[in-house]
Amino acid sequence: MDNNAASASHKIFTITSLSHSGSTVFSMALACHQQLVTVGEVFQVVRQHPRAMLEDQARDCSCGKHASECEFWGPVLKALEGLEYQEGNEKYAHVPRAYEIVAQHFHSLYGDDRFMVDTSKGLHHIEAMIASERLTPNAVFLVRDVRAYANSQTRLAGKQNRKGFKKVKTHFWFQILKWYFGNRKREKLLQQTQTPYTTVGYDAFCFEIGKTLADVYEAMALPPVCQDEDLSGSAHHVLFGNPMRLEPCAHAEIRYDSRWFSESGYIMPLALMPFIQRYNQKKVYQKGS
Ligand SMILES: [Zn+2]
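A: This is the predicted complex of the input protein with zinc ion.
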């Protein structure tokens, strides 16, 4: 490894959001930029020993090759075999180093003017990148309208026929509080660690896709996308992620789930918690908040 590669700080684009907040659709649209290459949910690949991926005969990358044959993940998985994997409380101790290996391989394959997009869910991936001095995460903090979120979550919980305490998940007030504290936790982590991030309201994005993406690219210091360019050939190596991964940049396919328009269960809890209403308005619909 040369000194340059060892001292360089690698910029990685990533998303943090609650589950069921549109991150798959959003990350697909985001990765249409000619300088971005989506590599799927990196955390899900690197959290365990790479043999799990290498020995899984059905584990194909979105490039069409098996994990071990993929030009990106093949060498990465082999390099990851050299790490030490622990258990219990230390089971993610190797993850920051694993991310550095992924980033180094990415830039040796694609050069320094292209960037990887990590679509991992949750917060572990952000924490891992922050823990490494060689990585600079650039995050999109994606927030879905609390009314849409609570409506879909209570509907899901209702279908699962929960009993006892778990029944609480079918209540709007519970889901609304979960939304608020979950999003605040994400935002606090980004702020406390001084991670550069852009807030995107998923609902606002659905109604103004091109404009929202242009704003995000600008905030990330990327040049605007050339609209005429044929994007069907955009590069991707998604080894772990949603099946939607294989569809090319189909902006026209993004359909807004408006089922919450006919729901009223959120009205009372939100009326009693006006601070949540204000937070929702600010994060989802106000630019630059
Ligand atoms: Zn591949």
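The chain has one domain: 3-144+196-258. Residues 1-6 have pLDDT under 50 and may be disordered.
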